[in-house]
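User: My notes are a mess, but here's the protein and pyridoxal-5'-phosphate's SMILES. Can you give me a structure?
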Amino acid sequence: MGVHITLGSGAPLGQEIYRQLREAILDGRLREGDALPASRELAASLGVSRNTVTSAYLRLGAEGFVSGHAGAGTHVSGGAATRRRRAPAGDLEPLPFWRRPIFASSHGPRPSWDFEVGVPDAALFPWVEWRRLVARELRPGRSLGGRYAEAAGHAGLRAAIARHAGIARSVRAGEEDVLVTSGAQQALDLAARVLLAPGTCVAVEEPGYPPARAVFESYGARVVPVRVDAEGLDVEALPSNARLVYVTPSHQFPLGTAMSLPRRLALLAWAERHGAALVEDDYDSEFRFDGRPLEPLQNLDRAGRVIYVGTFSKVLLPTLRVGFLVAPASLFPALAAAKAMADWHVPPETQAALQRLVDDGLLARHVKRALRVYRERRERLLDSLERRLGGAFQVLASSAGLHIATFLSDRRLDASALARRARAANVGVQALAPFYAAAPRAGLALGVGSITASRIDEGIRRLAACVGTRR
Ligand SMILES: Cc1ncc(COP(=O)(O)O)c(C=O)c1O
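Assistant: No problem, the inputs look usable. Here's the predicted complex:
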């Protein structure tokens, strides 16, 4: 790439070319081994004599910034102490919502016994098949010839998702009801865009999924947390002016419990009475360990009140960034327009490869295999918790998903401090407190996506030792 040089500062031309190239080397825009433009070409493009450029190159060479060999061009030498180039700080301010840190970063080193919540095991992902399918889509002539694609998604993938969600979750949808999104998070964002005005009341579960709460607040909604009990969201406690209710009925996040059928029916009846939309986030229920799953709200809905949200983040990988929503016809065009406005569409190559993964039965095969692995991990985790921490922890009933939640029997114990002590002992567990908007209940969530079965018991032994050393 040609380095950008601007003349006209009034300084001698050779000196200006020298200064700007030296600057580019010092701030790292030009790196060791990069070629400087041929002196003849640079001279022509700047409208200066070739001698002017060569004098600048000679000076850079004499100072050790570049070296040149006849015929091989001039290249940046190593060893220059570079300093980082930054954009000016400025004093522009974002709106108040954006002034606080919103998402805590979890990119640090992973603990050796890692019970991280919300991630699948990347080692189980069908890498070989995926590489083959993506490579096929990258062949000339396959990728829409570089044109923009349909915002609602690749027709084949939409149809595959409708069938897959229909079979696996009894979601009632045809291809035209499915919108492909960049993960569940974007589905929530699109729902918020088309349904919320500043000040609109939104009800979320307490405890609940903070990124959902954050996206609604970012559009100026007034978010009201509503208590979750053993049957799910307490419908009686919903504020009557809520226009949107966000729920995770299959596997409540983070407690892991399933919403009972009477609660599901009560919630649907409430939404009809109050003219509210329900956003049903079904993020990880492909992994079901026992019992028959209850019908999703989307299937029970007769009034077109439910936006069903699914994702491939747990069942495959979060880095794919593919999710979807199934919306009532009354909302679909607006949601598809919002998707186009946000980022046009998910990369078509990813969508087409994913369609093949679903249609060729590879996804179903992967789920079956991963389910066996996760089932074993989950059983070991439950067994180990019972043996080592049975008195101290109360495990919450759940039959699906990649994590379980526990309450600490001794309510005076500080679960966040326990999670910190565990981290110091190289064990990663998640306190429940950050998932509560108010008065948190002491507890921990433990995932099975990042730890192999053989390491689980030692991880829990170490965790139990931390409980013993309460300070
Ligand atoms: C409740 C809930 N919804 C959705 C997601 C997945 O989001 P995405 O599809 O944007 O990766 C997660 C991931 O942790 C989650 O816990």
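Residues 268 and 301 are 7 Å apart (CA to CA).
User: Great, I'll file this with my notes.
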